[in-house]
Amino acid sequence: MLMGGWNREQAVVFLCAASIRAQGMDQEEILRHELIHVIQDLHQGPLLPEPLFTILARETIPSGEVMMVIASGDDANRELECRLLTRMLSTPVVAQWLTESAGKNRQGVVTPVALVPKNP
């Protein structure tokens, strides 16, 4: 069930409020997660160096969640890094990091947010 996403081509972060409610998740946490994906794109590379990434992943993310991410076929390291940072950082810290990253890349803030209802 898709709860949110980052559309790089349109420079839009979107949230599906109905899916978030149905999963009992927090909208702010989902937004923070998607904004970290934006930061990853602005930096175009890992945000956490090895071996820190591996150590934090082992200590922070349950093995079942790691296996689910790996099985999804997406870029597992990128998604696991994003999940780690979502857990570790507050929303204000992510917002400041995003603003500073966008400024350094001279792209401005690239994250308009649209709340979209779940498709019927």
What would you note in describing this structure?
57% of the residues lie in helices and 11% in strands. With 120 residues, it is mainly alpha-helical. Strands 1-2-3 form a three-stranded mixed β-sheet. It is globular and about 40 Å long.
Supply database-style keywords.
120 residues, mainly alpha, 3-stranded mixed beta sheet, 6 helices, 3 strands, disordered C terminus
Gyration radius from CA atoms, angstroms: 14 Å
Distance between the termini: 13 Å
**Shape assignment:** globular
Beta-strand proportion? 5-15%
Short description:
By secondary structure, this protein is mostly helical. The protein is built from six helices and three strands.
Secondary-structure map:
Blueprint: E1 4-7, E2 12-16, H1 17-22, H2 27-43, H3 52-60, H4 63-71, H5 76-88, H6 91-104, E3 113-116
Parallel strand pairs: 2-3
Antiparallel strand pairs: 1-2
Helix pairs in contact: 2-5, 2-6, 4-5
